[in-house]
């Protein structure tokens, strides 16, 4: 299929607060919430507060967060053909189980409608496909029933434009290494849905010290630390041994997980109890993951690609010699599991007319990765997502 | 000098608890401490507890932590010619200022003695140099006086076998981005001492969840997260703009800092207040750092090397075009700031006769980095350390 399909630019990391979710945020008096201030010249000034220790009184929020036309305008401006849209953090994490359950089902229907009624784009082979697909929501909150989670997975798998689920790192309160999630992983794996794992909580803000660095530290470091920790715990709990076909797509290129994976392997090997729980060297599991290409630099992307490519060396029972192993690291191979993303509508440009720097940088980084062929780059820009999400009419 | 010197293997990341420090740990009843249990067959069983939430009742500790003969035996076993030894964490962090001051001065004298009386090794050019050099200690604790810190820097710079200082990430209580440290950086820079920045605290252990993963998560992830955070804060506070000749050597290849540096740059650019404080793009500062080669994988080392090599692109006012910038990334260049290390006596092997896996892995990783010449590898194995620490008789 890939060979006859048009070259498309597909954004797998793009967020929305649907109107129903926005209304909820506006109705709230504790974080997360949207509050409306007034500018000095009397205009309304909506502010989003989503973190417990939100610096500088929240961030400006506007139609780009909820208006589909704004999403499409952004896509047009940057030549993005198709976007797989997901609700932005903190999803339903803060709701009691009955509300989370109800809202998940409603928001999944809303998102299906948002996608199914979108304009279409030529996908080659004389076919037209919608420009918008989506990740659904599960009511992942403490004390939710398994049946509630399974019901929403079933719903998502039956909604034709939803191709995965987005989730944070808390699971049902105890993280992604909680055995209580096994029925969830099982159902998701069976349905062939992609799980987009995305951070929200960062780490304890005491780590950031007393200086005012705005959002820089929690976003630049806290987010990737959180994703790294969550997936490491998931790996150490054997989730990828029990559910080897699970498709996990990690935000921000997996954070620090690839670069710490050899250190992780070494620490595991030195702890026989942990080591005995795992079927393979820790580095093997990096090759089971999918990573967005949202790391802003060609060297970062090239390295992430290598960390996937080398994973085969670390399969238990692999018969390769050391030299064969060294030779087997082909960045090309790793690129197949990496996919362009924008993080829209976050990181807006400082002026309204220009292209978004974050988008331009990530596209340029993909272009500049040494060792990726043009075909590899086309894959990262769109072909890999077309295949993973089966983006057809 | 390097061209006529012998090829040496130099370990820049190797720890000791000197007898005076061990005695202090044995005398204590709160962490950090060494306690002596008894084995089922009646033998004494020393246990080291250094973390506030130490899992599994501490780790076995023995002569390798304090006996110089054990250090030399370890060096012989692995062909290490010279080691630059440093006190292991948590250094003097837990002491009141007068005790920290007194002990710093005493331990620096002890370490000088430990090194100066060590056996010698042929360093080429018909010269013999000691096999042991050292990093001294500063009394970096809350409410210490600047004069106390400056006194210990002066002492270290006058002790012939001490070539730097080791420090944690708390500074005098508020981290390494605290302006109170400016006189310390200034004196260290002037003395030409190398600062070995090493983690101890990790992150809030709530991040590790409820499963028992031994020491794996705090060591594999918490340590690098801590170093990454500390140096990022130092960079954002402009320390490397104010002290551009400061020589910072980061433990564990700088943790996640290189791989998150493009994301960091992007977050800084989107925050004009933070951006306006810095002279250069965040990635520029990676090129001012030195990294140990303790990351256990050739791809990790190659990437770290690239992150240093590319730093010149990001100097403010750099006139390179995009194409020149892409071409200018030569891993070779980055290797000059990387240095072999072992983390001895941590990560001991599971049996006593074998070579230490952690050492073998890091040496093999250096050997396998793609894009490093034999000369680059010799530099990482020893030549770079000989030059940085001026390892002469």
Automatic annotation (TrEMBL), chains A, B:
Any single GO BP term: secondary metabolic process
InterPro entries hit by this protein: ACMSD (IPR032465), Amidohydro-rel (IPR006680), Metal_Hydrolase (IPR032466)
Any coiled-coil regions, as ranges: none
GO molecular function: carboxy-lyase activity; hydrolase activity
SUPFAM superfamilies: Metallo-dependent hydrolases
Gene3D superfamilies reported in the protein's UniProt record: Metal-dependent hydrolases
Family: Belongs to the metallo-dependent hydrolases superfamily.
Database matches in PANTHER family: 2-AMINO-3-CARBOXYLMUCONATE-6-SEMIALDEHYDE DECARBOXYLASE, ISO-OROTATE DECARBOXYLASE (EUROFUNG)
Protein name in UniProt: Amidohydrolase-related domain-containing protein
């Amino acid at each position: 299929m890939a060979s006859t399909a048009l070259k498309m630019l597909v954004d797998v990391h793009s967020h929305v607060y649907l109107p129903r979710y926005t209304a909820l945020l506006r109705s709230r008096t504790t974080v997360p919430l949207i509050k409306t201030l007034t500018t000095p010249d009397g205009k309304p000034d909506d502010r989003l507060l989503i973190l417990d220790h939100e610096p500088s009184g929240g961030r400006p929020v506007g139609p780009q967060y909820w208006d589909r036309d704004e999403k499409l305008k952004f896509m047009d401006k940057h030549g993005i053909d198709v976007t797989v849209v997901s609700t932005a953090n903190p999803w339903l994490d803060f709701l009691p189980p009955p509300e989370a359950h109800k809202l998940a089902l409603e928001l999944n229907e809303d998102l299906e409608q948002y996608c199914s009624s979108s304009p279409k784009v030529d996908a080659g082979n004389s076919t037209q496909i919608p420009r918008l697909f989506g990740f659904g929501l599960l009511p992942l909150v403490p004390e939710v029933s398994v049946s509630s989670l399974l019901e929403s997975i079933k719903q998502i798998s039956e909604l034709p434009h939803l191709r995965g689920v987005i989730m944070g790192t808390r699971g049902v309160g105890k993280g992604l290494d909680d055995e209580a999630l096994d029925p969830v992983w099982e159902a998701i794996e069976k349905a062939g849905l992609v799980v987009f794992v995305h951070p929200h909580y960062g780490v304890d803000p005491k780590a950031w010290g007393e200086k005012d660095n705005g959002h820089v530290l929690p976003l630049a470091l806290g987010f990737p630390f959180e994703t790294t920790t969550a997936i490491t715990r998931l790996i150490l709990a054997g989730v990828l041994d029990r559910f080897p076909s699970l498709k996990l797509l990690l935000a921000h290129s997996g954070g620090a997980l690839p670069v710490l994976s050899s250190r992780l392997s070494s620490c595991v090997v030195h702890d026989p109890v942990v080591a005995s729980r795992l079927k393979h060297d820790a580095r093997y599991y990096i090759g089971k993951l999918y990573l967005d290409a949202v790391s802003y630099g060609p060297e970062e992307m090239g390295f992430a690609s290598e960390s996937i490519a080398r994973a085969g060396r670390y399969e238990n029972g692999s018969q390769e010699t050391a030299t064969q192993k060294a030779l087997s690291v082909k960045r090309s191979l790793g690129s197949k599991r990496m996919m362009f993303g924008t993080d829209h509508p976050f990181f807006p440009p400082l002026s309204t007319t220009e292209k978004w720097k974050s988008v331009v940088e990530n596209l340029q980084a993909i272009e500049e990765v040494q060792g990726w062929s043009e075909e590899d780059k086309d894959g990262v820009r769109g072909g890999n997502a077309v295949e993973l999400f089966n983006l057809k009419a």
